[in-house]
Automatic annotation (TrEMBL):
The keyword Membrane applies. The chain crosses the membrane at residues 12-29, 36-57, 63-82, 94-116, 128-145, 157-178, 190-210. It comes from the Bacteria. This is YhhN-like protein. The keyword Ligase does not apply. It comes from Mucilaginibacter ximonensis.
């Protein structure tokens, strides 16, 4: 029973929830900022990668190589969002350098340090740290902006979603290989269901951000 619920929740409910912000974003596309346009593209590609990963898992194919690809994609996509959200040349330059350096580190990691057939417990936590720090800087910048501005308020919701997910998942990213090899099935179900719940909440935050911005324009 627990296993069935977990599989349904992980394979259908949470990935399906990605459609909430995607559909809202497509409906209100012309009323949204360029930053949120980038977010919608990120969510669309993330959904496709998720579907591929689920299909691979259902056919007993190791989908860890896909996770390595997704980690790199996710960091680049989130930083693309923040490049547009900050909307300054200085921020764009720093973020571009960060994107290039992280890409190189990912390639080095799966080439020399961690097999593509195991969790990437070096680059995934690093991704979380980068996103959390960038999000905190973004919120501090918004602290000096007009709180009534719709884009800024949408940006707070989106950043809140990122911070909630990446902060809550950090230790799971670090210990994924340990959990995979040593935790009991019931413990794995609890951990992964918690992880999926934070993902679900993040998508809801994105949906609220899109609706909020669209209603104010």
């Amino acid at each position: 029973m627990l296993k069935t619920f977990s599989l349904l929740y992980e394979s259908y409910v949470v990935p399906g929830a990605t459609l909430l912000p995607i559909i809202a974003g497509l409906i209100y596309y012309k009323r949204l900022s360029k930053a949120i346009h980038a977010l919608i593209v990120y969510l669309g590609i993330a959904l496709l990668i998720n579907i591929v990963g689920i299909v691979m898992a259902n056919h007993n194919i190791n989908n860890m190589p896909l996770l390595h690809i997704y980690t790199l994609f996710e960091l680049l996509a989130v930083m693309w969002y923040y490049k547009r959200a900050f909307n300054t040349q200085a921020a764009a330059t720093r973020i571009t350098v960060l994107m290039v350096v992280y890409s190189v580190l990912c390639v080095l990691n799966f080439t020399f340090f961690q097999s593509i057939y195991q969790f990437n417990t070096y680059t995934r936590p690093l991704e979380a740290i980068i996103v959390v720090v960038t999000g905190c800087i973004y919120l501090s910048v918004l602290g000096n902006a007009d709180s009534k501005d719709s884009v800024n308020n949408a940006g707070r919701w989106i950043t809140g979603g990122f911070l909630l997910y990446f902060c809550s998942s950090f230790f799971q990213f670090v210990f994924s290989n340990v959990i995979s090899h040593h935790a009991s099935k019931s413990v794995k179900f609890i951990i992964w269901n918690l992880h999926d719940t934070f993902v679900l909440i993040m998508y809801i935050f994105f949906f609220v951000a899109i609706r909020y911005e669209a209603s104010k324009r």
